[in-house]
């Protein structure tokens, strides 16, 4: 199968997903194999919601919108134009997927198949409905994919390389277990935002999307703020108010109540507005419904700290601080070339 054939298949998948990028999907009769798959995918979305309380309709919709936006001929061709696929030898690549946000492992799935390899997927039990269904769609639009995609709940066997995503604890296990295979092992990472005190209301409102999207469960979710000495949080609290309905969602509210009780009983200083708490803390990973913050003395010392701690950080949201910063409100809109942990998975896959 030629690279262009693989691209064409994912473009058709993008067209299929685009139907579901609005609150009430509208069937497009020009989409390939819609009669076979349209109603089935609606059902899988319903199952995903029922199975995982964090996978709300809004979060599923946002994830699908993101993939529909990038699975175009232009975006895929531009992404892949920087690589040489001529000498790639097909191998079996295992993927161990996380399940913190909807379809979080799909970029790895796409990367393996677009590189010409076979894929063996071990899914998280928290996110097991969508990717297998979309894999079947791919096999319909490009029959050459048949036999190249498999899923397992058993012990991984017969693979040549592995891409595994998990916690810091599971990463140590992965490193030992896969030590004799080419691998990408991903650990916990969090995203941060740097505030300088001169942000506009629009920037802070955009930042609220980086904080609350997917309830802060993603590695691209902002879980910590760096602020100058004597920073006044009033403008921040005002700008994030549009997200206040989140407290009406049971799982989020339960976490808010629990963490608030822990902070109060421990007599921690914190600020809160009824749906988010902010607490001074040097850690990067904050609990749900909480954002940590830390003061910085100067931009120079902060830049040095961010560089020193880069293995713990996925994205840095800022305005004119560092070269690879992310704009306010854009952490959950990655491009195809925005690789997790900064590791180029296509380059890895072309060398195995």
Automatic annotation (TrEMBL):
Name of this chain's protein: Acyl-CoA reductase
Stored SUPFAM superfamilies: ALDH-like
Q: Which Pfam families match?
A: LuxC
User: Which top-level group of life is the source organism from?
Assistant: Bacteria
Q: Which organism is it from?
A: Microcosmobacter mediterraneus
- Keyword NADP found: yes
Keywords carried by this UniProt record? NADP
